Amino acid sequence: MENTDNTEALVELAYQFSGGMGGERDPDKSLELYEKVYALGDWRGAHGMAALYADLAAECSDPSLRRKYHYRKRKWHRIYMEMWHESLLGDPDEYDLTTEED
Do residues 77 and 50 touch, judged by C-beta distance below 8 A? Predict the structure, then answer.
């Protein structure tokens, strides 16, 4: 990821819109921003999407819409986990907790 400052700002804005901090809650804007973060290759975009869809499902009274949100939550959670694991495997030596014996 090349421009981490912009990515950090997008993640923070998406989080702010998802919770209505500092203004009115706007899940659509939050989803849009999380998608941009995901498009930049950052796993936090997929994680944010999964979390927001989980919140929307929990708040929804329409069963068919709730199922749709649950499906999207599972989809984005799977993508998040894949991206997160890839980031861990990007530099295996960094995560190698074994010690060499003399």
Answer: yes
Mark 26-44 as b/e (b = at least 16 C-beta within 10 Å): ebebbbebbbbbbebebbb
For 2-59, the pLDDT digits (tens) are 456 689 999 999 999 988 877 888 999 999 999 999 999 999 999 999 999 999 999 9
Residue 71 · residue 38 · CB < 8 Å: no
**Cα 12 to chain center, whole Å?**
12
Give me the amino acid identity at 49: M
Mean pLDDT across 60-66: 96
Residue 63 burial (CB count, 10 A): 8
